[in-house]
Amino acid sequence: MGKPLGPTGEFFRRRDEWRKHPMLNKQLRHATPGLGIAVVAFSIYLVGEAAYNKLYAPSHSNSHTSPQSH
User: Fold this and answer.
1) Using DSSP, how many helices (H) and how many strands (E) does the chain show?
2) What's the pLDDT at 7?
């Protein structure tokens, strides 16, 4: 197949076997089902809340009332 790696190459090949673990190869999506949908939904919520606050929240100049003495 290829030339022999020698003791140093064999050492590093064994140390890199974790990179071939199924959890790290395109399977990470399956480990966190629904995470992508949740992130999108939360982002839409944040944008909607910011838009609502900008459109419908009372401005600070109108909500401030002067103190009245009784």
Assistant:
1) 4, 0
2) 65
31, part of any domain = yes
Note whether residue 22 is domain-resident: yes
| Helix H or strand E segment including 41 | helix 35-56
The overall average pLDDT reported for the chain is 75
Q: What's the structural domain count of the chain?
A: 1
Q: Could you give the CA distance from residue 43 to residue 41 in angstroms, rounded to a whole number?
A: 5
From CA 23, how far away is CA 29, in angstroms rounded? Answer: 9
Could you read off the pLDDT of 44-55 as tens digits, one per residue? 999 999 999 999
